[in-house]
Amino acid sequence: MLTDLPNVLTLLRIAAIPVLVALLALHSALGNVAACVVYTAACITDYLDGALARRWQMLSELGRMMDPIADKLLVGALLLALAGLTVLPVFSLYAAIIIMLREILVSGLREYMASQRETLPSTRLAKWKTGIQMVAIGFLIGGDKAAAALHLSFLPATLIGGILLWISVIPTVLSGWGYLTIGFSRMMASDPRKSSKIVS
Fold first, then answer.
1. Tell me: the pLDDT tens digits for 3-55?
2. How many helical (H) and strand (E) elements, i.e. helices and strands, does the chain have?
3. Organism's domain of life (predicted)?
4. Most CB atoms closer than 10 Å: which of 6, 34, 115, 176?
5. How far apart, in Å, are the Cα atoms of 80 and each of 85, 86, 89, 93?
6. Which residues are CB-neighbours of 67 under 8 A, at least 6 positions away?
């Protein structure tokens, strides 16, 4: 049900998005620090909703659908906000574009698979992708302003975030290719006419 605690945590992660964008729009060290706090809480809910659902036997199709959607909304909205604020270093705007294209492609594939009554379960590589992206975005949200406000001026937070975003492109592309391979193989298996054409 929507009111189950794991699903409520997922909804809170979505609700945090406009708050994070508003804090980033302040262009201040205090706003960046506050954004880091809210973002960290949102990331914690990403772990808790799944852990609690498994522990309390609250697994549901609604939860399985909402969890990856919440992750994609959070990552996508923040990447767009950071790009708009021009705080993406080391050409990591292009990394963000690759990430967004992959997410749209996989989401479209999942939608098609669902229409064919097929599922496309998340892989361990995709979880690593999400984890690295979230850490990278955390550094980018805080940036050098938050580092200075926390007396960590020696830490090049923005640069670290940009490098980590590029590193996340590797599992992003690999997991996306894996999903495409699985999706197309299942589509061919479910349509014997297409399979026979390929074989011939």
1. 677 778 888 999 999 999 999 999 999 999 999 999 999 999 888 877 777 77
2. 7, 0
3. Bacteria
4. 6
5. 9, 10, 14, 9
6. 10, 46, 49, 50
